[in-house]
Amino acid sequence: RRAKDLVQRLPGPAPRLAAGMRHGLTHYFAPEETGTLFEEIGFEYIGPVDGHDLPMLLEIFRNVRQLPGPVFVHALTVKGKGYEKAEADARTWHGVGPFDLQKCEFAAKSGGRPAYTSVFGDALSELARRDERVVAITAAMPDGTGLTEFANEFPDRYYDVGIAEPHAVTFAAGLAAGGVKPFVAIYSTFMQRAFDQIVHDCALQHLPVRFIMDRAGLVGADGPTHHGTFDISYLSFIPGLVQLAPRDGTELRAMVDWMAGYQDAPTALRYPRGSVPEGLPEGRSPIQLGRAENLGVPGGEADSVAVIVAYGSMVDRAWQAATKLTAMGTPTAVINARFAKPLDAAMITQAAREHGGLVTVEENARTGGFGELVREALVDADLAALPHTVLSLPDRFIEHGDQDKLLDENGLSVDDIVNAVRNVQKQARNS
């Protein structure tokens, strides 16, 4: 810095020659003109340096603290550094669970049930084989969103825009305006980055962009930055935008097909991280805009005296709770909401009338969430006085941990649902 100030005071061409030499050296060592780019916009550029040399980095950081103005330290690193297998295949080893260090093999997963992510990937590929207008867009997460096979089979209809979610959404809006059917697969938590584009570029224009939000709800080990606990809330008040969520893998496939045919507005589908559930009723009704599905009482041998309205990932736990309640002598029906918006207010309010109240269950923050949408429907139907309980995630950021344990610890266990139904039943009897 001192030398630079001194040179700039010299008469004649010296300052210009010195600046040219510095830019030339930076251009030579920095990839893709990174250094010159940041110097042009006013940064003091330092680098590139070895990002694995910790003592050197610490020394650099101690020095650059003395520089006035913005400083850009450019450190080059190798993903998976120190583990040859990870260095050679950074995508596979991006974020891993337990594995054998010597054999370089992942621990076998128990259960054998497919993940929601893979079910979506297969469903979209099948859809693309039937409809050449279907394209897939992601923001640097082809593996995490299940699009790797789609990219291999349809390379001309697959777009990875990098970590640029706002661009992904606006790009999809342009494609939709041209008659293409874009499916934008982005994690729920990262879709927040593109909120403005969803509102102005998609919803305001009534463009049928299809948003696929993986990792909706609690994601486990990735922690609070990756929990997708706000998407119902931040999308529910956007005019015209349709929100839906499947109860299992079969319904996910059906919803993907339905979204491909819906052309009136943007649609947003959410599903959780992990495997699809087993044990839910196999009786199916077709997906229709704003229509819920009444799964009835487990066993189907008694008329229901209580009802649970569950959305998406919570249908499974609601069904387990209903099974437990029915065995305890309280036959309980489960409504699979399917749509948060438009809500099937007719079915839900009718169920509330018949049962004297209801319980809603969702894997989302309470404020602006599914339960509040149901509560609004009860108010509109003059049923606000009926006892009802909203089970949702608490108003705080949740740390990392096992998904099932996190749900249990945050008020969404099967027993929590059972107790909520019993309390509503008690209030209904006493009212």
Overview of this protein structure:
This protein is an alpha/beta fold and 431 residues long. Helix content is 40%, strand content 17%. The chain has 17 helices and 16 strands. The strands form four sheets. The protein has a seven-stranded mixed sheet, sandwiched between helices. Strands 11-13-12-15-16 form a five-stranded mixed sheet, sandwiched between helices. A two-stranded parallel ribbon has the order 1-2.
Q: What would a concise description of this structure say?
A:
The chain is α/β, with parallel strands linked by helices.
From the structure above, extract its key features.
16 strands, alpha/beta, 5-stranded mixed β-sheet, 431 residues, 17 helices
As residue ranges, the low-confidence spans are none
Name the overall outline.
elongated
Q: What value does the Rg take, in angstroms?
A: 27 Å
β content, as a range?
15-25%
Would you tell me the structural class of the helices and strands?
Answer: alpha/beta
- Read across the widest sheet, the strand sequence of neighbours is 6-5-7-8-10-9-14
How would you summarize the topology of this molecule?
Layout: H1 2-9, H2 14-29, H3 34-40, E1 44-50, H4 54-64, E2 71-76, H5 84-88, E3 99-100, E4 105-106, H6 116-130, E5 134-138, H7 148-153, E6 158-160, H8 165-177, E7 181-187, H9 188-191, H10 195-203, E8 210-214, H11 231-236, E9 242-244, H12 249-261, E10 267-270, E11 293-296, E12 306-310, H13 314-327, E13 332-336, E14 339-341, H14 345-355, E15 358-365, H15 370-380, E16 388-393, H16 403-409, H17 414-430
Helix pairs in contact: 1-2, 6-12, 8-10, 13-17
